[in-house]
Design brief:
homotetramer, alpha/beta, Quinone Oxidoreductase, Chain A, domain 1, Rossmann fold, 2 domains, seven-stranded mixed beta sheet, globular, Alcohol dehydrogenase (chains A, B, C, D), ER (chains A, B, C, D), metal-binding (chains A, B, C, D)
Chain lengths: 373, 373, 373, 373
Amino acid sequence: MESMVTTVRAAVLETTGGEVRIGTYPAAPAQPGAVVVDVLHAGICGTDIHLQDGRLPVPLPVILGHEAVGVVRELGDGVDADATGDRLRAGDHVVWASSIPCGRCHYCVALHEYSLCEQRRVYGINQSAQVWPHLSGGWAERIYLQPGTALFRVPAQLSGLEVVALGCAGPTIVHGLLGRAAPRVGEVVVIQGAGPVGMAAAMYARLAGAGTIVLVGGPAERLKVADELGVCDLALDIDRHTEPEARIDAARQVTPGRRGADLVIEATGLPSAVAEGIAMARRGGRYLVVGQYTDHGDTLINPHHITRKQLEVIGSWAFSAQHYERYVRTLPQVADHFDLVRLVTEYPLAQVNQAMSDMRAGTIIKPVLSPRL
Amino acid sequence: MESMVTTVRAAVLETTGGEVRIGTYPAAPAQPGAVVVDVLHAGICGTDIHLQDGRLPVPLPVILGHEAVGVVRELGDGVDADATGDRLRAGDHVVWASSIPCGRCHYCVALHEYSLCEQRRVYGINQSAQVWPHLSGGWAERIYLQPGTALFRVPAQLSGLEVVALGCAGPTIVHGLLGRAAPRVGEVVVIQGAGPVGMAAAMYARLAGAGTIVLVGGPAERLKVADELGVCDLALDIDRHTEPEARIDAARQVTPGRRGADLVIEATGLPSAVAEGIAMARRGGRYLVVGQYTDHGDTLINPHHITRKQLEVIGSWAFSAQHYERYVRTLPQVADHFDLVRLVTEYPLAQVNQAMSDMRAGTIIKPVLSPRL
Amino acid sequence: MESMVTTVRAAVLETTGGEVRIGTYPAAPAQPGAVVVDVLHAGICGTDIHLQDGRLPVPLPVILGHEAVGVVRELGDGVDADATGDRLRAGDHVVWASSIPCGRCHYCVALHEYSLCEQRRVYGINQSAQVWPHLSGGWAERIYLQPGTALFRVPAQLSGLEVVALGCAGPTIVHGLLGRAAPRVGEVVVIQGAGPVGMAAAMYARLAGAGTIVLVGGPAERLKVADELGVCDLALDIDRHTEPEARIDAARQVTPGRRGADLVIEATGLPSAVAEGIAMARRGGRYLVVGQYTDHGDTLINPHHITRKQLEVIGSWAFSAQHYERYVRTLPQVADHFDLVRLVTEYPLAQVNQAMSDMRAGTIIKPVLSPRL
Amino acid sequence: MESMVTTVRAAVLETTGGEVRIGTYPAAPAQPGAVVVDVLHAGICGTDIHLQDGRLPVPLPVILGHEAVGVVRELGDGVDADATGDRLRAGDHVVWASSIPCGRCHYCVALHEYSLCEQRRVYGINQSAQVWPHLSGGWAERIYLQPGTALFRVPAQLSGLEVVALGCAGPTIVHGLLGRAAPRVGEVVVIQGAGPVGMAAAMYARLAGAGTIVLVGGPAERLKVADELGVCDLALDIDRHTEPEARIDAARQVTPGRRGADLVIEATGLPSAVAEGIAMARRGGRYLVVGQYTDHGDTLINPHHITRKQLEVIGSWAFSAQHYERYVRTLPQVADHFDLVRLVTEYPLAQVNQAMSDMRAGTIIKPVLSPRL
């Protein structure tokens, strides 16, 4: 049943610090429980930059790409529905949760907290391209989704680019914001960071009925897009408000009685942002720390403020199938409110290094690789 | 109706850094809504030491004492019941919430979060002895409880010393632990600090069904009392485990799979304890930061751990009538399990300076002034 | 300072079953802590109909009207700010929480659950017009707001009719839906009842990010308005779907996999609606029972479904200052999304009986009395 | 490696209404991922009586027994640890979650709510004895645990009878009470029903710090055991308080101010208990409906009380691996407090029909089959 194409092009990271190379890998038919997907679009994420820089230990060579959308090419035996029970057929547009939990550790079996799984497999991150089934990353013409992957059919009204525009930032925020920080109608929300996670946070905060949304970030180009998309009520440019105190004052100024924000969301990845976020929150407020994905070391924090203000500081790590399902289910609402494609800059697979370098330069928001371009 | 005693002895802090002096103040009859109480016992709290050291701005002179138990001497017009609706009469043993919220700020009127009130009056702390009704602290023969004070009759089975043994640490933990950190049956709980707050935390954690309780603190005398009272399963002496890493290892060692504690409670007041507590918690765990009552400045914290572990870091500040009611209601259960009087060292009012100095020396756990001694 | 007008016209219910009569009452200047307000608009609520029918015991005669908006005429001594701390002056447009909790019962003092207060005073309901200060209902030219009333300045962008359009249904839903049932982005919400409570529920559910909203109610005129306002995605006319089974099927049909709604909201007041609502909810769903305000007796319910489906059935009663503050704060967002005035039919005070009879006929949604008309 | 024993004795239900028969089935070696266990003890549960009566459709013949403890006889390839990661070996005493979720339905994949799984396999209930591996019920000398079963090593300090004494009532209450109803220190808890579920509820409520526990049930023998074990502070005998009103009054009488219980737990299975439980709860209270496991039809309930009292009525159904893990982890605490073996009456496998008939008679609390007797 498998077509004649026997090799697949993929973008592979072979050495840390080096460029990504386009290689070819043998195509395999779908074993029972697996699904083979032709990739339409795959996002480039800040974590990919960190991988290239060698900040996370991964088994090289690795086909990068942990966020993608594609077309079902072949369903292995026993797969006839997606993870919500909807019928699945070749030709369907699909997305999938990027990780497969081990299903055996304490967090999986006893707590059902899959984002805390001690041994999960993650597409595009910790699956070596040298190990069968090789095609375990999204920056490729094709990806082999192993049994246990939670797949979801793309809602009919969404284009492929809309689906990939927020990348993993979308489900990360669904987990952190909707799943853990519980936004409430009318709240004043301050978001630190104007990258994809910050943008996704602002969009979902709006969807959840936030009364006022302040986005603190940069550079100006990104804030301009944020403004055009209508994701925030006030954008504070960190290149103009260069001092923490100035940002804190400006953010508090829009809160009732200057008491501070009901909810602050950290989406910068910079340790120093945390003390600043604590200062922006009101007494009794909540602080979602979702951006400290990689370890950048210690920072100075005054814990008295946590006690005195009765803050709730909430960490949230990545996401699991549960959050991805919710993300796919709510994405049409996001797309109704915001022009998601406006975030995307598209590149053919061969221009992957250009795309990564543009991302490093901060001149674009969301680079996307489209193997069919 | 008022008796002939027209002056009342009280222990007054007149200058920061100075000794406490025994002075006399005129007794006033109870105005409508007020209650005059003869003090039986009044606790000395770490905050009193801070006040003497001038670490909190207060209006001097001030009759100290924010934790006390007494006998109703006179009820003002309109007062015939305590805050739970139980009938109140002269001669009843009573306790009271130490603060009166303003009832007008945003936190009071709109949020009903009275511990966050912006202008609350606190007995023994921010009520000058020079301002009517003068008798606004517990270190005195008598205290004048103003209208709006939440009074509670002492449950019949409790002695006065049992009531005052935990001092304000009791309701502070009822607020923080029961009200905010929600302990669960079977959890592994690590408590940092063996003072009254740590002791109260351990007792209430036990009451709430904790499976294993580790108390990290010192000096050895305190841990010996903790052990005798049965408040913990393991006591880690910080004078023997002098390095943070050693304490972290020892605490994790008793947790299943060395994954860390389900719940860590900070009750030290030392900023440096916070990074250590974060390291002691398991992925998905909770960290109650209740001990950072006064501002001791910044400390180094790695916020990546908050994200990576999905920690919930919960601040809790003081308490309000709601928590005090729950404290009084549950105190008989605490007293059934633990010999509370074992914590107390009693002093006559005149020996207040000796009591404070013994407390500074750490040789006793809970000094209590008994004006009738 | 008080003007020359010494009598005030008001609509008084004197006997149950009888018509409401226009009477006059003496005006009183504002005592300390009180506020005198000239009424602009006062809503007529289903509860007023119940009061006229004698279904709730109230002290007659009573000036009805528990929902209103007005202009501050006079501030008593000590009142210079509203309940959020904003400055208050004569001439300001204001609204107020309709009840004053006793501040002495267990629910007030110990639990801070003011909607459960055992002895609260409610404007327009349990305050006799014969007892000073007489003017204790909103269906009048003027109302005397006693000390302890939580007042709120009307946000500048709102007209008086917008403020009164949802009446007490608005804060009732803020309490029940936002405060207790915690709606989540993307949920399928079924609302039983198309009166003001159902309309308010739909509006706030939309604001909170509901993915699909089904409104089950009638008559057709109301559903037409609901449709024009855009409050729901699907309106099920109970005059067309006359059998419960048909309504249950139709509601489930729009839920994914026909599993049922994530959240069902009962806003009918009919006991029989409850079994139907339970059938409409999915396994693991929530059911907010907010409409059973008056006692209409028993109904048949199968409790096995509560266990089997793991339902959470949540009762919610009226509201307190906390919810009213949140209502006023979020009303501008509601008004941005929905044309609130479309709900209102305005009458002069003298046509109160006509207004009540139109309401009984169901030909209008929200009758409002405007004393200045 | 498999021993010579090639057939296994088991108690099989062949026809509804009929007696259970002892049959023999072929033993199979453990396939990869499976575990073969020699049964030590297996509980008889009320559900088994319902199955015999034909109240639940099951595939006959079926080896009954969904609660058991045993010794590992053989581990299939790939199984070297239990569900908490502890090493597992032949000879270990083990228990296991009685159901295996399908892992493919919406509740499994998207919501991780495994007790709501639409197609779960349950040992001793919906696995036919005619289908391989045949040995799928606990009333047998041996059971074959299929891949996907969550096994747990029995804590060393527990005897087999202690482990089986509460049967499935234990994890059912861990799910309902600890997982959903969140008991709090000091609460007044009323429990309806003195069977295993009611007993387990009382024990766990005590462990969680309940201040006062009232057990409403019968017959007198059971209440006598409850009293001897110390599971409640007050036992209300329904044979002496035969009218609901009398029971409601008696239960409310022990609550502060007769306001009603903070938490009521329904553990009777009788629909009529629900209206009674609602009446026993205080305003703002919670009502856990965990006993309506099988469908006994409609009952009269007044939903006005749900609204007026702001009740939270919480359904809870069975349990999943998550709850079972917590049950096993906390069982040593339960056993420390209560003499669990006191609940048990032991029978050899051959006397299964006698055991069932004794259970129907209500003369014993927990019949247990011990195949090795």
